[in-house]
Specification:
The complex is a heterotrimer. Chain A is an alpha/beta fold. Helices cover 42% and strands 17% of the residues of chain A. Chain A folds into two domains: 212 residues, 3-Layer(aba) Sandwich (Rossmann fold); 142 residues, 3-Layer(aba) Sandwich (Rossmann fold), CATH 3.40.50.2300. A seven-stranded mixed beta sheet of chain A has the order 7-6-8-9-10-13-14, sandwiched between helices. In chain A, strands 2-1-3-4-5 form a five-stranded parallel beta sheet, with helices on both faces. Chain A has a two-stranded antiparallel sheet with strand order 11-12. In chain A, helix 2 packs across helix 11, helix 8 runs parallel beside helix 9 and helix 11 crosses helix 12. The N and C termini of chain A lie far apart (56 Å). In chain C, 71% of the residues lie in helices and 3% in strands. Chain C has a two-stranded antiparallel ribbon with strand order 1-2. In chain C, helix 5 packs antiparallel against helix 8. The longest helix of chain C is centred in the first third of the chain and has 29 residues. Chains in contact: A-B, A-C, B-C. Chains B and C meet through helix 3, helix 4, helix 7, helix 9 and helix 12 of B and helix 3, helix 4, helix 9 and helix 11 of C.
Chain lengths: 387, 286, 296
């Protein structure tokens, strides 16, 4: 029986119902399940990220409860781990309501998510107020962990991926002069641009022009015509995949020379790019914290299990979520409880060999290592690791 | 009573949203009652939110002054788009206010001080629950008082019969402009409250869909009485929280409500008429 | 570069005009600001996309299929939502409100059903391959862009001929001018209105197919995101004014491209609203239109 909250038996009943609902696969021989919260965009435009994350979390959850970690099933000597999902729909107000309900009513000791950086900026302060650790698995914007001392993230921020991409472009392809384009009305693409700009400057690139567009724009001819005349070696673009495909196609249509290639941020990192832009995307470079064809056994086991269970390929969001749940389960065991300070300390001591490579937290509670970053190149509509 | 604190803490955002959406619905009501349609309520709200947030972040002004400024800024903008369009038919104001939302988004995205696409973070939580509901209560009382007065009858005349209004010596455009200004102020106030409740605002929070949602509050409640829209807002805010499956279909549901109510219940789901002392409104049998 | 930018502006302007033709016709005749118009554009593109998936189908099958389907949808929407209001002579804002609700309902349902991912026509639907382009001196135009310019010109011509050179056009203009008088003169107002709905839907659907072909970004919100430009074209060109729509569309497209190319691309999205407000303040009738004054 779960604890009776607020002195009302009604909440006890609700809590019990919840516990039954969220733990259908009770494998570990534990007492009561340990329920953690997760706020993800499971409906709405951002649901393609949220659902991938849920798939990755659920896969890892079953592994944890089946005892793949070696030390028996579950966490804390045999308690089943369970996840209570709340759908934010990608809306920050729903995300805040979800966080308050998870913390105030469900009493979860830790929250995974939310999906979007924008939502984290809204939800983070709520979790920090109640000293509840909150772990973003997909937030790449700058300043996420500055929200407060209980905010963690396992997603590699753009600031860690982009320098690797740019250095590769510089050393392997001799890129010196670039034009920059970015979507200026979207938090994700704008913060990607900020990182590009800072690194282009510090790495000594010559920036010929900086052009902007809106996330909903479909016509980029004015910007691309201008860029075509500037004689650049490459075009650096921070865009979501929709705009990115349009830019690539229109650039070739306007006759931008084949040797001028594109360098993308994380928004380019989608199979959809090759699907839409086809041959126009050839030669595009993008950095990624994870890649499906990485050969190490941990990754191959994950990819096989994921395909078996969901009959589709995992993406980086599923991979990051998968690692995150394992990292969390290990930290809970290390801490020996789910008490806030102990758990935060234990998280900081993470040393996890996962699908993204060796994972540690830096002192600022962001990922501590960029060793797992790979640079991908597009050829015939498919990304592959640049050799 | 710690458990009561917990309930309040858990539902704080929802409680704030109830009051804020009530204010927004009332702001919509004021325009509709004057026989116009504004699709810029979200834009006015956003302008109030940005004005309030910037003042709180960069100046030490007391919250009362911040609120006043947040109400004034959208009123000025409302005048700029209201004066040329209200001389024409109703669709012009509707079009111009849709465009306003879009152009303000461009401004927020490009102006450095508004934080661009990243929006504004760390807005102090200066909104207290009682402030929202006090403002809502005052606005409701004001709307009732105006409705009972000569102005209220004039507005009803403007809404239902332009020629009768002209006979009564009413300057239609001036009356509708006044309604639009008051409406922008209420929406700006609501925006300021919401910014100081959520701590984070972004340029894409005040788009067309928000405007239509506000319209659905007012239409569900009906425009017979100022209480109608407020009840509409309460219902449409609380319902998705109670009925989880409804949350996924929130936008579909809001759209459906507008269609069904306009077609089948032109007076709204809450069919109250404002009590009128002395005589019944035209077209209503005793 | 200037010649190419001018061409870019012309093409973009033609997409705006093409999109707005049906919108302004509907507005001018039916006196309804119909916000579901953007959805006809989306629906046309999606139907054409489905048809294009049939093996052996070409654009010349997909384009009419998408356009006709959108026309049918327009008639259904008009019959279900707007006819009942017309029958009781509801205020014009009621009609606008219904379409506001309908567009939210329809696009939300569609995006829940299909997702918001973008789709594109299979490459080579025009039979010219992907890289095909027309090179005229310093200017390069893709075949899809040539098609857009040609279709826009053709449709404007055909519409003007229909309105001013046929009995049907006379009936449409009579209904646009004064519904009651038209009825007295023996014009079937209901039939004429249904026909205008259908024509507008067809043009919206055709615009959706061509926009999808040119920009390769077919998704549930594609029509809705064109609506602001549609409003600007209708107001700047004058309500219901076909020539005005062409003029206003091209003016808007060229201005946007010139602002983005020579001033600052960040200002591009503000151009439509700025032009619209300027016209409303200075010349509310539009560049070539007539004033729709209050009914007082």
């Amino acid at each position: 029986m779960t604890k009776v909250f607020w002195g009302s038996p009604l909440w006890g009943v609700l809590g019990l119902a919840t516990a039954i609902l969220v733990s259908p696969s009770v494998t570990a021989a534990g007492s009561e399940p340990l329920t953690v919260g997760a706020i993800e965009a499971l409906t709405g435009p951002a649901s393609r990220y949220g659902i991938a994350i849920r798939d990755g979390l659920d896969l890892a959850l079953d592994e944890v409860n089946a005892g793949s970690g070696g030390a028996g099933g579950g966490v804390l000597h045999g308690r089943t781990l369970a996840i209570r999902y709340e759908d934010s729909g990608g809306q920050k107000e729903s995300a805040i309501n979800a966080a308050r309900s998870l913390i105030g009513r469900e009493r979860v000791p830790v929250i995974i998510g939310p999906t979007l950086s924008n939502e984290m900026f809204a939800v983070g302060p709520v979790a920090v107020e109640r000293k509840v650790p909150i772990i973003g698995t997909s937030n790449t914007a700058n300043g996420i962990t500055d929200i407060g001392p209980t905010v963690f993230r396992t997603s590699l921020p753009e600031a860690d991926v982009i320098p690797v991409t740019l250095k590769t472009a510089q050393s392997r392809f001799g890129v010196k002069r670039v034009a920059v384009m970015y979507g200026n009305d979207d938090a994700f693409t704008k913060s990607g641009f900020d990182v590009f700009k800072a690194n282009l400057d510090s790495l000594g690139f010559d920036i010929a022009t900086i052009e902007t567009f809106g996330a909903k724009d479909t016509d980029f001819s004015a910007q691309l015509t201008k860029i075509k005349d500037l004689g650049v070696d490459a075009v650096v673009v921070s865009a979501l995949v929709e705009a990115a495909s349009g830019i690539l196609l229109q650039a070739r249509q306007l006759g931008l020379p084949e040797k001028v290639f594109f360098i993308g941020g994380n928004g380019f990192n989608s199979p959809k790019l090759g699907e839409i832009a086809g041959a126009a995307a050839d030669g595009t470079l993008v950095g990624s914290p994870w890649f499906i064809d990485k050969a190490d056994p941990v990754n191959q086991t994950f990819v096989t299990a994921f395909r078996q269970r969901y009959h589709k390929d995992p993406d980086q969001f599923a991979a990051q979520a998968y690692d995150t749940l394992h990292i969390l389960a290990e930290a809970i065991n290390r801490a020996g409880s789910v008490q806030s300070e102990a758990l935060c300390q234990a998280l900081l001591q993470t040393h996890h060999e996962g699908v993204m490579g060796l994972f540690t937290f830096a002192a600022d509670r962001s990922p501590g290592s960029t060793a797992g970053v790979v640079v991908l190149v597009m050829k015939d509509g498919r990304f592959s690791v640049l050799q | 009573m710690p458990w009561l604190d917990d309930i309040l803490w858990t539902y704080q955002t929802l409680i704030h949203s109830l009051g804020i959406n009530g204010l927004l619905a009332l702001s919509m009501y004021v325009v509709l009652a004057a026989g116009q349609l504004s699709l810029g309520q979200a834009a006015f709200m956003g302008l109030g939110a940005y004005t309030g947030a910037l003042l709180s972040l960069h100046t030490g002004l007391p919250f009362a002054l911040v609120l006043a400024a947040s109400a004034l800024a959208p009123a000025v903008v409302a005048a700029v788009i209201g004066i040329p369009t209200l001389r024409l038919t109703g669709v012009y104001l509707a079009i111009a206010t849709i465009g306003l939302g879009e152009v303000l988004r461009v401004v927020y995205v490009n102006a450095g001080i508004t934080g661009g696409a990243l929006g504004l973070n760390g807005i102090p939580g200066r909104t207290e629950t009682w402030m929202i509901f006090l403002a809502l209560g005052l606005a409701l009382a004001g709307a009732f008082a105006v409705g009972q007065s000569r102005i209220g009858r004039a507005m009803e005349a403007m809404r239902s019969d332009g020629i009768a209004a002209a006979v009564m010596g009413i300057d239609r455009a001036a009356g509708q402009l006044a309604a639009l200004l008051v409406s922008a102020m209420l929406a700006g106030l609501a925006g300021c409250f919401s910014a100081h409740s959520a701590s984070f605002i972004g340029p894409n929070d005040y788009a067309f869909e928000t405007a239509v949602t506000i319209l659905s509050f007012a239409i569900l409640g009906g425009t017979g009485s100022p209480l109608g829209p407020v009840v509409g807002a309460l219902v449409l805010t609380a319902l998705p929280e109670v009925l989880r499956p409804l949350q996924d279909f929130r936008l579909v549901f809001n759209g459906l409500i507008i269609v069904l109510v306009v077609l089948f219940l032109p007076r709204g789901v809450v069919p109250w008429r404002m009590p009128r002392l002395g005589r019944l409104p035209r077209g209503m049998a005793p | 570069m200037f010649a190419q930018q001018l061409a870019n502006g012309l093409v973009l302007g033609c997409t705006y005009a093409l999109f707005a033709l049906g919108f302004t016709l509907m507005f001018g005749v039916l006196k309804v600001l119909n916000l579901t118009y953007g959805f006809y554009c989306t629906a046309g593109a999606l139907v054409a996309l489905a048809v294009a998936g049939i093996p052996g189908a070409t654009l010349w099958l997909a384009l009419p299929a998408g356009a006709l389907a959108a026309g049918g949808l327009a008639v259904v929407v008009d019959t279900l939502l707007l006819m009942p209001l017309r029958r009781v002579r509801a205020p014009e804002l009621s009609a606008l409100m219904v379409t506001v609700g309908a567009v939210l309902l329809l696009t939300s349902l569609l995006s829940m059903g299909l997702g918001t991912e973008i789709r594109r026509f299979p490459p080579g639907m025009l039979g010219t391959g992907t890289g095909g382009a027309v090179v005229l001196g310093p200017v390069r135009l893709a075949w899809s862009q040539v098609l857009i310019i040609a279709t826009t010109g053709l449709l404007v011509g055909a519409l003007l001929a229909l309105l001013h050179g046929s009995r049907l056009g006379l009936a449409i203009r009579a209904v646009a001018g004064n519904e009651d008088a038209a009825r007295l003169m023996g014009v079937s107002v209901a039939r004429t209105m249904a026909l205008v709905s259908f024509l507008s839907g067809v043009m919206g659907g055709a615009a959706g197919v061509l926009l999808g072909l040119n920009f390769n970004a077919i998704q549930p919100y594609m029509g809705e995101s064109m609506m602001l430009h549609g409003f600007a074209v209708v107001i700047v060109g004058g309500l219901g004014n076909i020539r005005g729509a062409l003029l206003a569309g091209v003016l808007l497209g060229v201005t946007e491209v010139m602002v983005a190319g020579y001033v600052d691309s960040a200002l591009k999205d503000g151009v439509a609203f700025a032009l619209m407000m300027l016209v409303l303040w200075l010349r509310p009738a539009g560049l070539g239109g007539r004033v729709v004054a209050p009914r007082v």
